[in-house]
Description:
The protein is mostly helical. The protein has one domain (about 5-64). About 50% of the residues lie in helices and about 0% in strands. It has helices at about 5-15, 30-45, 55-64.
Amino acid sequence: MSNHTTKxxxxxxKNLGKHNLHNENYSGPKDKKTLLKGYLKGIEKREKWGEIDxxxxxxxxxxx
Length: 64
């Protein structure tokens, strides 16, 4: 089981798009709105949530 928590997942979401700002080889979306839409599509397929509260994470994404 992973030690990845709800807090860790929310921090990951907060930082979406920041990791690739200075990577000239990155060709994917850079704007936060597009990245959050992709994240929401991805979590539909996620089966293992471990210590992550799915509802809290989804609510956070929808507020941002």
